[in-house]
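Bug #2210: token dump truncated for DUF8077 domain-containing protein?
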Amino acid sequence: MFEWSSSIKVAYCVDLPIPDLLSPFRRTFSKVATKYCHNITACNSKTKLVFGPEHVAFVDGFPRREYGAIHIKFYVVFPYKTVLASKQPRPLLSRAVLSGESPLLD
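Reproduced locally. Full output below:
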């Protein structure tokens, strides 16, 4: 997973069903992650990584509509057989957050 989080604003048709937004979001963000991780130091990787839409996963309960906007909470999983330059000492997200027992943000 990435060691950072961010927020983005995206223009979209307010009548667009959420499922129709998810596939383009995954495709686009996987391209962003691939471009970011071509700097192997940034991703703590020994090789350049290539991400696909299947590496972008949504946190349970998201995306959802709130106050006229779509809120998306997601995480990116490293591709299978990724070799890291140094060992990650612990998960970047706590077990409570990963299991859905605790909110990602308070």
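Output looks complete on our side. Strands lie at 56-58, 64-66, 69-71, 74-76. Marking as cannot-reproduce; reopen if the truncation happens again.
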